[in-house]
């Protein structure tokens, strides 16, 4: 829902209850909803999934960037899962993302279950696998070096590794406004694509490889 007022009475009650346990619970659940709903799979909606493939060509890595953007979340998830099924045909491929283990992949799976969309083979039974059996490289975990408490955002990690910021136009907090009020999905898609490129560059840095040059980044339509 675009705002707290348009939630069903039951979900309004559950939203308020969810945050009441905090030491300083928000006094205005409507304002808090506007600020936080987008990070909770039970209340959010996926409108864009951007992703990329690393490919080796002429002795160098190239990045092929794709996006799926759609107001119909169920259609978007089904399209993305078709990509997953076609890509993960062998055990030598992995997802990569920043905090992908604890945010992106669980979020996508929860939204799929809400819409009763069948998960692709690679994402089934993740909760039953040992952590090292999950097909994911997480740049946040890479940067933690085994520490449990440390959290670093993509923007901060990019800054300290001398990589251009992915937040030049938007940041995550802007997405809800740009979608619901400005109705500018292409702008959100461009932001998501840049985020993917930034994570790819971070992965290059963490593996002590040269950054991808513009000629090595190919945006697919």
Textual characterization of the structure:
With 221 residues, the protein is an alpha/beta fold. The chain contains eight helices and five strands, in the order ααββαβαβααααβ. It has a three-stranded mixed sheet. The longest helix is centred in the last third of the chain and has 22 residues. The radius of gyration is 18 Å and the shape is globular. The mean pLDDT is 90.
Helix/strand layout:
Blueprint: H1 9-19, H2 29-36, E1 48-57, E2 60-69, H3 73-87, E3 95-97, H4 100-114, E4 136-138, H5 139-144, H6 154-160, H7 175-180, H8 185-206, E5 217-219
Parallel strand pairs: 2-5, 3-4
Antiparallel strand pairs: 1-2
Could you give a quick summary of the protein structure above?
By secondary structure, this protein is an alpha/beta fold. 41% of the residues lie in helices and 13% in strands.
